[in-house]
Amino acid sequence: MSEAVTALKNARYDAGIATISEIGPLGMITIRGDLEAAFLRKVINKTVGLERPESGMCNSDGTSAVAWMSPDELLLICPHAQVAEVLSRLLAAFEDTHTLAVDVSGARAAFRIEGTHAREVLAKLAPVDLAPAKFTPGMFRRTRVGQVPAAFWLLEDGAFQVVCFRSVAQYMFDQLKVAAQPGSAVGHFSAP
Amino acid sequence: MLILTCPCCHVTAEETEFHGGGEAHLKRVGPDGAEGDFESYLFMRQNPKGVHLERWRHVYGCGKWFHMARDTATLEVFGSYAAQTLAPPDHIVDAIRKRHPDWQWPAAS
């Protein structure tokens, strides 16, 4: 099997007000179907040990995560080495129900933003209210970051994880670097 | 700048996360229709100064289409509702009439 390589070879930037790092390779599986169906909750719980997230949320246990993408779509994240196995277990469990699961690991890039000013760096680029009281750990949001579609969620440790298309990984990394450049702290959410 | 709420994922966001899709509730003219009617269906659109019903898509979010009522002059948003409706629901009409008591949906007449 060929070796999985991330788009930017795990590039890292830590000269600014927040640390930007490309993470991965991550295993990502898109699931589409009736999210209200009881069997889907059961299958997800059995496959990765997580509950189906409520609207706008992401359930994660450190190695795997399940995020709510839209009223009929979930994103399942797991270690890259386990994708094939998780996918085959999902497909076997879905049987002939009108449910779809596809491996999209190769189509995506993922970034981590950490540091005191992580909120601020992302708030400069996304049209989302990221005030600490409004955007709390576990919340998940699909939106745009700069000019490209992206999704992000807040981890328990205060870091953000951003997922975007692999084709725009360089753009995403570059704009996050600009938003995090030294001396650019606004101090909107915390003292500069 | 419009602030919209997607009725599918209930996210409230500003206009740039969405994309407008033109006039809502168009009724397609079928194979038996007259040429002139078909031309109107394809090309003739309302362009009101005031209340307008539109289709929008939550393009950077959940990706779903929905309907929205807004005022093209004041940019006031009266509300959004499901794409799977053939006419504006009562709560939207009520919200519009609070501001424009005499408003009638043109397609209803």
Describe the structure.
The complex is a heterodimer of chains A (192) and B (109). Chain A has 192 residues and is of the alpha+beta class. Chain A has one domain: Probable tRNA modification gtpase trme, domain 1 (Gyrase A, domain 2, 2-Layer Sandwich), CATH 3.30.1360. Chain A is 21% helix and 31% strand. Chain B is an alpha+beta fold. Chain B has one domain (3-108): Folate-binding fold (2-Layer Sandwich), CATH 3.30.2270. Chain B contains two helices and six strands; from the N terminus they run E-E-E-H-E-E-E-H. The chains are: A alpha+beta (192), B alpha+beta (109). Chain A binds chain B through residues 55-56, 69-71, 73, 127-128, 141-144, 149, and chain B through 8-11, 13-14, 16-17, 59-64.
Give a short synopsis of this structure.
Chain A is an alpha+beta fold. Chain A is built from four helices and eleven strands, in the order βββαβββαββαβββα. Chain A has a single domain (12-179), classed as 2-Layer Sandwich (Gyrase A, domain 2), CATH 3.30.1360.120.
Average per-residue pLDDT of chain B, rounded, comes to 94
- State the strand order across the main sheet of chain A: 1-2-8-11-10-9
Strand order of the largest sheet of chain B: 3-4-5-6
Give the termini distance of chain A in whole angstroms.
48 Å
By CATH, the architecture of chain A is named 2-Layer Sandwich
CATH superfamily of chain B: Folate-binding superfamily
Going by helix content, strand content and strand pairing, the class of chain A is: alpha+beta
Estimate the global geometry of chain B from the Cα principal axes: globular
Average pLDDT level of chain A: 94
Task: Name the shape of chain A in a single word.
Answer: globular
Share of residues in strands of chain B: 25-35%
Number of helices of chain B: 2
Radius of gyration of chain A: 17 Å
Structural class by SSE content of chain B = alpha+beta
Q: What is the CATH topology assignment of chain A?
A: Gyrase A, domain 2
The CATH class label of chain A is Alpha Beta
| CATH superfamily label of chain A | Probable tRNA modification gtpase trme, domain 1
Integer count of domains of chain B: 1
